[in-house]
Amino acid sequence: MPILSKQRSFHLDGTVTPGFEKVADAFVHNFSSRGETGVACAVYVHGECVVDLWGGYADPKQDAKWRADTLVPVFSSTKGFAALAAADAHSKGFFSYDDLVATHWPEFSVHGKEHITIRQLLGHQAGLCRLDELDLRSFADLDTASAAPKLAAMIPAWKPGEAHGYHTWTIGWFISELIRRTDPQGRPLRVFFQEEIAAPLEAEFYIGLPASVPDSRLAKVKGFDSPLQLLLRLHEVPPSLLLAFANPRSLTSRSMVDPKRLVANNHFNHREMLSIEFPSGNGVGRVRDMAKIYGEFASGGSALKLSVHTLEELARPAIPPDKGWFDLVNRADLGYSLGFWKPIPERSFGTSRHAYGHPGAGGSFCFADPDKGVGYAYAMNQIGGYMDRNPRENALRRAVYACLRQ
Question: Mean of the per-residue pLDDT values for the chain?
Fold first, then answer.
């Protein structure tokens, strides 16, 4: 069903297949009643694109409309695509998730890290999350090639395996270095992802934006430009997380806040930030293709020739570390596995605990639901304090599953 309408002067476009009209209705409602400014949402089911919607402004300041080929930064949703690359490498036999990290990265084997497994590292259980250990001074320091030598020298913040805490900015580097060291061709993640996932699927998603992509295709994200804007959005941040941020010595602050504010939201509008390989946060892509990539994994991975064993690993429910689901950095109960967020009773998505994916700052979310063969992606340019509980994204997700139940 073609969608072409205006709500509050916003141009909305795209298509949904019969049976998914409720998603289009929720999409329109987000603009008319929830303050959406620019966004795209797409859903694949068993390899078929059933929802492909976009609308609003890619750059509100320039009155530039969101188009079918607009690319948007997705912040921490990038981690999910890095984890998909790791899964593809696992499928190719580069490593086992139960290998010791030090088996493939000998320099890693210091400061009590000798027995950390890849599964523990990708489950945020290694305690290697503190940014203040890395002395980051410029955007160039955020590139994997610059960060990797510092990662091996990190000291765990807790005994690995006992607890978990969101490795906010470090996990992507660890994934990239693991792939580079195990890939027989020694490819960095940005190259591996393009050659092994994006190209076979004819999908546009970049972890390191190439110069060939023009600025005119990029959505501009809007974060907190002033203290007043920050105050107006404080209700979007969980109180426990706010309290942790208020203490500069907390593990949360030391893991999430870099002193130079290199990872501030608005910096993701700069080519200098988008062009490096920063697999924890600077992924840029077309939302339709984000859903297509997750849909490939959700529906059997035939185009990528993914192994059944790898897909079974991805679908396995998360298992909490010894001290339970409480995340020492995010200050909430969360489930992690193999680089992804996983559903737990307190934070559910998809149909069951088999689903896997990752949210991003402000409320983007991409995931696979293998029970239903669903690849889902939502990304916007209005950044708030949400993670997975952005009410605009949640409304679309509920509509998708209401349609699937019909």
Answer: 93
CATH of the domain at 260: 3.40.710.10
Distance from C-alpha of 198 to C-alpha of 319, rounded to nearest angstrom: 30
b/e burial code for range 306-323 (CB count within 10 A of at least 16 → b):
bbeebbebbbeebebbee
Which of 201, 189, 373, 371 is CA-nearest to residue 282? Answer: 189
pLDDT tens-digit map of 319-358: 999 999 999 999 999 999 999 999 999 899 999 999 999 9
Q: Decide: 12 and 5 in contact? Cβ < 8 Å.
A: yes
* DSSP annotation of 226: S
- The domain in which residue 317 lies consists of 5-362+374-405
Residue 122 token pair: 């990708």
Alpha carbon 400 to its chain centroid, in Å, reads 20
Bridge partners (DSSP) listed for residue 41: 53, 378
pLDDT digits (tens, 9 = 90+) for 134-157: 989 999 999 999 999 999 999 999
DSSP state of 388: S
Yes or no: say if 40 and 217 are a contact pair by the CB < 8 Å rule: no
Number of domains in the chain: 1
Task: Give the separation between CA 189 and CA 125, rounded to whole angstroms.
Answer: 22
Q: Is the pTM value of this prediction over 0.85?
A: yes
Residue 369 is assigned to a structural domain of this protein:
no
Q: pLDDT at residue 7 above 90? A: no
Q: Both tokens of residue 364?
A: 């983007």
* Among 271, 348, 322, 324, CA closest to 71: 271
